[in-house]
DNA sequence: GTATCCACTGGGCAATCTGTTCAGTGTTTC
DNA sequence: GAAACACTGAACAGATTGCCCAGTGGATAC
């Protein structure tokens, strides 16, 4: 579960240049190919690395508008709402949360006008009492993992 | 920018089985290898596919707690706050938004107690007036892109 | 002290895949 | 018609993968 320095370097290297193979990695890292292979296998079976799926940019697909919606759910309707939202393609992720809202989801839309359609579809469901939406203007820090991996590798070092 | 049905099938196939190569894809899709290769090159230069970085699970790294924080920023301090948050490894992404808050970020922490430390570090900066945090209990719909890709491919078909 | 386990090294092997090029074909556009 | 474009099917050398092996060094257990 904890990762060491070499694991960290493997993940960071892979994040920076995803297309390089095991052989090239072993050259860059100065270790044997079998070692990199074994580490990678372990990281994947550990679940640290979930996969290598393509990162698709919704904007390039024609969905340049992103928004976060906080939803309030009618008591006991949680499961139904989850199932409903799972059927909406523009809902990219959904979390149940503590705090003022009960759920929080990430939406994309083709335009600000289209966002209205998406929100209508999202909230057009009986179990949802209220939705409050924040439109994303700028993605100041895109989803990243490298700093956290380096942190985790550091922590492991000093222990 | 718009993708057709074949593009959609390539992306979906790649998302489901990331490790398969161009050759195997061409076999599965029933098209020539050169075609798949050309489509993939185009999708990448279009920016539709950003890359193939490893998907790292913060929970498996020892950060099982996720939270969303809505931040209110002192006027004119936006750039400084962005720079500050970029230095915090536990900040996985950051958006500037419309609505009640000025920014919204995704945080992870080692525990609920550790989340306090992270939040203190996040808000321990002059430009941040107030932070309101929602802890994620369940990730009902993990970040996904396949339904949107299929939608986008559909839209292209019917046009 | 000695045996055992474990991770890593460095090497080798056949099978496979990649990057690239080529000519040929069908479709669309002007 | 001519040109442009995307796709097919094939070929090639070069590189990579998955797999195996023996040897080494450190840590742990007895």
UniProtKB/TrEMBL annotation, chains A, B:
A GO molecular-function descriptor: sequence-specific DNA binding
Chain coiled-coil ranges: none
Stored Pfam families: AsnC_trans_reg, HTH_24
Residues of the HTH asnC-type domain: 3-64
SUPFAM superfamilies assigned to the protein according to its UniProt record, in alphabetical order: Dimeric alpha+beta barrel (SSF54909), Winged helix' DNA-binding domain (SSF46785)
InterPro entries: AsnC-type_HTH_dom, Dimeric_a/b-barrel, Tscrpt_reg_AsnC-like, Tscrpt_reg_AsnC/Lrp_C, WH-like_DNA-bd_sf, WH_DNA-bd_sf
Entry keywords, A to Z: DNA-binding, Transcription, Transcription regulation
GO biological-process terms attached to the record: response to amino acid
Gene Ontology CC terms, in alphabetical order: cytosol
Keyword Transcription regulation in annotation: yes
Gene3D superfamilies: 3.30.70.920, Winged helix-like DNA-binding domain superfamily/Winged helix DNA-binding domain
PROSITE patterns the UniProt entry points to: HTH_ASNC_2
UniProt protein name: AsnC family transcriptional regulator
């Amino acid at each position: 579960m904890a990762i060491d320095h070499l694991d960290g370097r493997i993940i960071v290297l892979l994040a920076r240049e995803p297309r390089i193979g095991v052989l090239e990695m072993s050259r860059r890292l100065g270790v044997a190919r079998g070692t990199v292979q074994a580490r990678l296998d372990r990281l994947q079976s550990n679940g640290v690395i979930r996969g290598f799926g393509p990162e698709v940019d919704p904007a390039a697909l024609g969905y340049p508008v992103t928004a976060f919606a906080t939803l309030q759910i009618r008591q006991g309707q949680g499961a139904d709402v989850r199932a409903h939202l799972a059927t909406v393609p523009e809902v990219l992720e959904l979390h149940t949360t503590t705090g003022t809202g009960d759920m929080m989801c990430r939406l994309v839309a083709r335009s600000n006008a289209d966002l209205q359609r998406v929100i209508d579809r999202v909230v057009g469901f009986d179990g949802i009492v209220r939705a409050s939406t924040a439109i994303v203007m700028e993605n100041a820090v895109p989803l990243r993992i490298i700093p956290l991996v380096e942190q985790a590798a550091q922590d492991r070092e000093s222990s």
